[in-house]
């Protein structure tokens, strides 16, 4: 019984191997046939393209011959007046093309223009930076009024203190808002009105009274 089972099992395994190898062979054949078809279609396509090209060439030749006959001369091949006229026409076209090329060369390239614009914007940025730095230095060098509490280093000569903050001496030139410090005005102009104006260039509307001056005026 055991021997019979082994024989049966062996037979089954052999048949499965045979089956798989057959499948592989079929797959291989299929892929080869596909490859063959592809090659055939490619060659067919290329030959079709060649035929089309030759046809267009013939058509062009016929058209040229008709033009020559219309001009009343013999064919270009024979070297008649039609042929010379054609040559002149070609030379004229060539001259026109060369002139156009020359004009194009003289015209500035768009990429070059872009680079120039980049350079100018970079220069502007640098100059602007220098201006802002110089303004900061000038402001820092300004002496603070006696008795004034220095709130920021960007406001104009008169430094704002608590009392001045309440008075709001600075007004926005674009809207009705009022501010106690020049930097607030410059920040507001930049964020709300898209105007860049340094704090050193903004002057207060009404005179700020320092604490000492306020006391003096009261007495």
From TrEMBL:
Residues 1-20, 59-108 have a biased composition (Basic and acidic residues). Residues 1-124 are annotated as: Disordered. Residues 35-58 have a biased composition (Basic residues). One of its GO terms (molecular function) is zinc ion binding. Residues 170-198 form the C2H2-type domain. Keywords: Metal-binding, Zinc, Zinc-finger. It comes from the Eukaryota. This is C2H2-type domain-containing protein. It comes from Heterosigma akashiwo (Chromophytic alga).
């Amino acid at each position: 019984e055991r021997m019979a089972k082994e024989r049966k099992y062996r037979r089954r395994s052999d048949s499965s191997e045979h089956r798989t190898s057959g499948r592989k062979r079929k797959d291989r054949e299929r892929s080869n046939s596909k490859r063959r078809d592809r090659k055939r279609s490619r060659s067919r396509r290329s030959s079709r393209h060649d035929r089309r090209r030759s046809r267009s060439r013939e058509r062009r030749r016929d058209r040229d011959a008709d033009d020559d006959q219309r001009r009343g001369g013999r064919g270009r091949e024979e070297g008649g007046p039609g042929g010379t006229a054609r040559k002149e026409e070609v030379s004229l076209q060539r001259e026109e093309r060369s002139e156009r090329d020359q004009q194009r060369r003289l015209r500035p390239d768009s990429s070059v223009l872009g680079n120039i614009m980049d350079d100018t914007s970079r220069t502007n940025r640098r100059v602007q930076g220098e201006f802002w730095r110089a303004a900061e230095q000038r402001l820092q060098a300004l002496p603070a009024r006696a008795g004034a509490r220095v709130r920021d280093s960007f406001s104009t000569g008169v430094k704002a203190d608590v009392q001045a903050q309440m008075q709001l001496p600075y007004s926005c030139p674009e809207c009705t808002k009022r501010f106690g410090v020049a930097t607030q005005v410059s920040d507001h102009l930049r964020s709300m009105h898209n105007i860049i104006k340094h704090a050193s260039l903004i002057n207060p509307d009404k005179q700020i009274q320092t604490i000492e001056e306020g006391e003096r005026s009261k007495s």
